[in-house]
Each structure stands twice: as C-alpha cells, then as structure tokens.
Amino acid sequence: MTVHAFHIFDRKGKTLFTKRYSSIVKNQPVQDAELLSEQRKLIFGMLFSLRELVGSLTPEGESPALHSVRTGAGTLHCYETISGLRMALYTNNNPNMGSNARNLDTSKTSFQNALKHIYSELWVDCVVRSPLYRPGDIQVDGNGNDVGRFDIRSTNFEKKLDAYLASMPWFR
C-alpha cells in the first residue's frame, strides 16, 4: 500500500501539518502554493461535509464516525479527536497490502489504530506538550513571515511520524 500524503487540520479547517510521501507526488513539478492550499481546503471540505452526513444518518444514541473514504483514485483514512483535530492519511486502493484476504478487516482497523497512535503518542508528546505551543498559534507555511509563532518543524514530530509510518507493514 502506497501512502501518498498525511494532513492534520484544526476544527476550523486550518492546515496544521502536511507531509507528502509517495514518489509520484514528490516528483511532480513544484506546484503553486495557491494550488496546494486549494487542495488542502478541498480535502478538509470533503471531510467536514461527509462527517456532517454521517452524523445525520447515524442512529440516535450512537456516536457518528467517519473512518475512511474510498474513491477511484485512492482512500482517505480519517481520525477526528474530541477537540476537533482531524487527521487524514491518503493511500492508494490496494486492498491486499501484502496479507491474505481474511485479514482485510484487521488492516482497515490498523489505519484507525495508527492514526490514534499518531495523535496520542506523537502529536501530544511532540507538539501539545512543547513549552512553546499555544493552541491557534501554529506557523503553517514556514515562509518565515510568522515571527514568534510556533513551528511544528521545530519539534521531533515529523521525524517520529516518518519513523512510525515506515515501521508499519502497509507503508511503502
């Protein structure tokens, strides 16, 4: 299974972190910053809209949950925290993932477990517990114009994320 990208959004739709992994995405010509911003807005908008739809279709008394969205081009695995932080892992549609068919359900839940681990073990430890972190005061684009704002790249989050994803059996 090829992982193409990983995104983190806050509850208002602001992109907090984006990392691209697949060689297809990395080898594309440098895209306009405005185009990349539009792509992130579309991803968040789709997640937000589908979350609302799932919430309206969920039986009363149960908590609504959107775990993944599968399209012809790929699958977007989602995890939303109670604080409204949304994590999205975009992968290809290879259902096999190097395992046999009877383990398919386990592989689907492993994405949820992986996203929960990324939030609880990596994001909380590296970003939230940083003494420099203040909610709503995160530098996103790294262009240097946000003097005094917290930059996620100054933490070990990206290194730990890369190491964790590389250790997963479905990461390629």
Structure at a glance:
Helix 3 runs antiparallel to helix 4 (157-167). Helix content is 38%, strand content 19%. The chain is of the alpha+beta class.
Overview of the structural elements:
- This protein is an alpha+beta fold and 172 residues long.
- It has helices spanning 23-26, 33-57, 104-128, 157-167; strands at 3-9, 15-20, 68-70, 75-80, 86-91, 138-139, 150-151.
- A hairpin with a 4-residue loop joins strand 3 and strand 4.
- Helix 3 packs antiparallel against helix 4.
- The longest helix has 25 residues, at 33-57.
- Residues 96-107 have low confidence and may be disordered.
Low-confidence stretches: 96-107
Number of DSSP strand runs: 7
- Summarize the biggest pleated sheet: 5 strands, antiparallel
Quote the beta fraction.
Answer: 15-25%
- Assign a percent range to the helix content: 25-40%
Shape: globular
Rounded to an integer in angstroms, the radius of gyration calculated over CA atoms is: 16 Å
Spatial gap, N to C terminus? 6 Å
> What is the string of helix and strand elements?
EEHHEEEHEEH
Provide a count of the helices: 4
Mean pLDDT: 76
Major sheet strand order? 2-1-5-4-3
By helix and strand content, what is the structural category? alpha+beta
